[in-house]
Automatic annotation (TrEMBL):
Organism, as annotated: Virgisporangium ochraceum
Protein name: Ethyl tert-butyl ether degradation protein EthD
Segments forming domain EthD: 11-88
NCBIfam families: EthD family reductase (TIGR02118)
GO terms for MF: oxidoreductase activity
Amino acid sequence: MHKLVVLYPEPADPDHFRDYYVTTHLPLVARLPGLLAFRYSFDVAATQGPTPYFAIFEADFADADTMAAARSSPQGRRVSADVANYATGGAVVIHYPVHDGVR
């Protein structure tokens, strides 16, 4: 599996961010080809001190090629272009392959 994570710093208008994100942005995300699952939260907390992030998003893809194809698709370009409509604090995007741990 390959994971895409987006970390959002505090926006200028948190209420607008939440509303727009849920009602407009996430429906665009749901149309990404090859998307297996996604999760998000507005309740980001640091284990010590203040958190540098307001919200987090995670998406699962079968592999890096599938994620890259989704991001470069017309739907992916719409998702990327839409970020400026709510994330006035910017966004940090990272991705990585996921390996299962051993207990």
